[in-house]
Structures are given as C-alpha cells and as structure tokens.
Specification:
By secondary structure, this protein is α/β, with parallel strands linked by helices. Helices cover 29% and strands 24% of the residues.
C-alpha cells in the first residue's frame, strides 16, 4: 500500500528531563532557548519550511498549557505596550509565532508505558489511515538544512517505503553512545536494524540514527504496550526495525548537522554552534 505524502508532524516532548532539573520542574525541556527562540520553535519552523500543515506536539500534563500559551496566546497586552513605547518592531517575532502552521497540543496518554514510542502512539487519533507522517524528537536540532524536507523528498522518490529515517555519520569513538544503523547486505539505503549503544568494535557502521523519521500508519501495529523492549520501555526504533523486517525502510543521510540538546553539555554545544552560525 502507498500512503499520501505527509502533511502532519508529531513532535514529542513528554519526558521529565531530569538531567536539566531544577529548571525543567517548571518548563518543558524543549522550551529552553536557542538564541531568542525555544528549541521547540526551531523544530516547528523546520516542519513549516518543508510544507507541513499541522504539527501535533505531545507534551506532559504540565507542559501542555505552556505550549498552548506560547503558540496560541496573541499577547495583546505586550503588543499594546510596544506600540505605546514606539517599539512595535519588537513584537514582530511574536506575530511570527502566531503565523506558524496549525499547532495542536495534546497530552501523552498516561496509560502507556514509559518510552519514546509512547508519545507517538498517543497521537494515533490524529493520523489518518492513508497518510504518512513525520516524527521528530524535540531535543534534536539540525543546523544548515531541513531534515523534514529531505524526508519528504526521499518519500516522493520511494513511495513504497514503509518508513524513512535520517542518519548522520559520527566519529568511531562515540558510536557506543547512540543507536547505530545496520544496512541490509548489498544495499546502501535499506535498513536491516538499529543496534542500540553497541561496543565500539561491534558497531555495524558509523551511521547514527536520531529523532527524524517519516513513518506510515503501519508503525502503530508495533507501538503497542505489549511490545515493550529494553528497560521495559516502548521504543520507536523497535517498531521501525519490525517494519524493516517486513518491508522497505530507507536510510538517508542528513544534509545538515544534527546536534542533540538532551543534556546540559550537548545543549551548550548546540548553543555555541547556533551563535557561530549567527555571527
């Protein structure tokens, strides 16, 4: 079966970000700033630039109203004050937020097990049975290009794909920190499986998988609470591996530079990279 080109993206930020406490007891991790914008806005803008029409943000119960306020509150009191002070140009970035594509904020289903697959499964009611869709982990940022655009282009070229994942080549010495891609024998684009944090000497490639996927509704057959994996968690990569056993899952290299913001050290590195690009 072939599916319609994606018009929707699921962006997940439903964890508790314990490595960033105490700030994340008050705000979601993806609301931490990169420059003057929160990480989440950079991700949403990447989707918008690629033609995505609706972004479904999956948040915690406490995070949901924060995202609702950020993306939907017109802040008329601030606009009025800026006009009175002759500084209306400072309000322009707020207007830019309000002009982004449709943003739907939902809470992660609390009945689902822990794991990065549960926010995706929580958004199932928002995905039609005949449409492909994009999934993004909000702690992954990409500089210099749009992975969402790359995913859309690749799907247009390979409409029979069950899924498409973006990968980045990484130095050998860090391969034990990430999910590493094993390709099918004799093929440079088809996924065999993803090996989570292998020993460096056992890494099947230097291609790291991260949170940029184009998926089809078939993935929901595997994102089921009975399919928990490592550490009794529900993993998106486990579902993708199952799809690769039954059909074609394509791997495409990023045209930009992926950086994670998932811990304070890497967040600081992403900030530095952003500042370098803005200089």
């Amino acid at each position: 079966m072939t599916y319609r080109m994606p018009t929707k993206a699921i962006v997940t930020d439903a964890g508790f970000a314990s490595r960033f406490l105490p700030i994340t007891k008050t705000i979601p991790k993806a609301m931490l700033p990169i420059g003057a914008k929160p990480i989440m806005q950079l991700v949403v803008e990447e989707c918008a630039e690629a033609g995505i029409e609706e972004i479904i943000i999956v948040a915690t119960e406490k995070g949901k109203p924060i995202y609702e306020d950020y993306f939907h509150n017109p802040a008329e009191n601030i606009r009025k004050l800026m006009i009175e002070q002759g500084k209306e140009d400072r309000f322009a970035p707020v207007a830019g937020v309000l002009n982004l594509p449709k943003i739907t904020v939902i809470e992660q289903d609390p009945s689902l097990p822990y794991g990065n697959g549960s926010p995706v499964a929580s958004a199932r009611p928002y995905i039609d049975n005949d449409e492909a869709f994009v999934v993004i982990y909000s702690d992954d940022v990409v500089f210099g290009s749009s992975d969402v655009r790359t995913l859309m282009k690749t799907y247009a070229e390979h409409p029979q794909a069950e899924a498409i994942i973006v990968a980045q080549e990484m130095p050998r010495e860090v391969l034990n920190k990430y999910g590493i891609i094993r390709l099918k024998d004799g093929n440079e684009m088809l996924l065999h499986d993803i090996v989570e944090k292998p020993k460096i000497e056992d890494a099947p490639s230097n291609l790291t998988s991260y949170g940029r996927y184009l998926l089809t509704p078939k993935v929901f057959e595997y994102l089921d609470p009975k399919n928990i994996g490592l550490d009794n968690e529900l993993w998106t990569v486990d579902a993708i591996t199952k799809m690769a056993e039954e059909g074609d899952v394509y791997v495409v290299k990023t045209e930009g530079q992926w950086m994670t913001t998932g811990d304070p050290a890497n967040y600081s590195a992403a900030l530095k990279k952003y500042e370098e690009l803005q200089a």
